[in-house]
Amino acid sequence: MPVNLPIEAQKAQMEYESATNPAERLKKAEQFLRTIPKHKGTANLRAQLKQSMAKLRDGIEKSKQKQAKRKSIHRKKHGAAQICVVGFPNSGKSFLMNRLCNISLESTDVPFETKNPEVAMADYEDIQFQLIEIPSITPNFRHRPGGAELLNIIRTCDLILILPGKEKRDYELQIIRGEMESNSILLDRKKKDIRIYRMNSGGLNILGKENFRGDIIELKKVLQRYGIHNAEIILNESLDVEDLVDALDDGIVYKRSLVIPDMSNLKGLLKVIWDKLGLIRIYTKEPGKKAESEPIILASGSTIEDVGKEIHKDFVKNFRFARVFGRSAKFGGQMIGLGHMVFDRDVVEFHLR
User: Fold this and answer.
1) Which CATH architecture fits 81-189+253-274?
2) Residue-wise pLDDT tens digits, 245-302
3) What is the pTM of this model?
4) Considering only CA atoms, which of 236, 227, 245 is closest in space to residue 207?
């Protein structure tokens, strides 16, 4: 299907197609993607461009690995969750860090003066969050010195706090979200539920075709471009060709984000952060003893089996039963099995063979 692109997108497409250097070509591809309107008629074009971008990134990363090692700015995770604080210059990042972490970072009015991330811990009830202030994000952030390394920190964090300025709020939000998406960081979206079972022969068998919003022939072409020629594909939810490409791209990460619209009242923000993270605290105890004071942090919806695996790999193998005290129990000390779903602040007592 021919795609009628706006003038801005046509110009970006020409610049992308004329670029030869991989880094420059990737930069132009990111700009081209941002200019393509997102609707049914452009889904295939966007999907093909995303595939090309993934190959470019992979090639660039492999080339970097062959070069001399650069100074790492990786920050090891501590606490219940690692949270990145992002925003434009003068957005209040240092102010937020100071208030939540009880520290005294000095802010600067000079854009890009801060080059390294600042790290501090925030206390919330009986746990801690690790907050990382990312130097100011602006258009083409990745291509700034150190930008790619900073984006790698964002890729591995648990939550992104976005601080848009008051005067250009919508513009700054658009740029920040665009920079994230252009670098395979998708905010507040979930990976589509697609199951792929590879086989030695038999071609592509698509189950759940009614969930695909597009041409099944195009779907099969995308799968083949990813080297999937013989497999059973189960589409468990509605998706289009661009969703399919995102799901197949191992370089894409899906992150929760929280926009902080007002810096004047930060009371209760740590609770909002905890709720947004979708985590739970589970306390373990041995029979006849008090519960441990330090909780195990798990994703909401976790089970007794998940708790056991966090403690030791042999817990599940040696499991007899467990007793649970808390909101998930019908009564205190209820005897339960591995499939029992636990709630925040539950206490679990394991009984092993």
Assistant:
1) 3-Layer(aba) Sandwich (3.40)
2) 999 988 899 999 999 988 878 889 999 999 999 999 999 999 989 999 999 999 999 9
3) 0.80
4) 236
Q: Which fold has domain 279-352?
A: Ubiquitin-like (UB roll) (3.10.20)
Strands 346-352 and 279-285 come out as parallel
Question: Contacts from 282-288 at CB under 8 Å and sequence distance 24+?
Answer: 282/307, 282/342, 282/345, 282/346, 282/347, 282/348, 283/345, 283/346, 283/347, 283/348, 284/311, 284/347, 284/348, 284/349, 284/350, 285/347, 285/348, 285/349, 286/349, 286/350, 287/349, 287/351
**Residue length of the chain:** 353
* 136-153 residue pLDDT tens: 998 888 778 888 889 989
The token pair at 202 is 């038999």
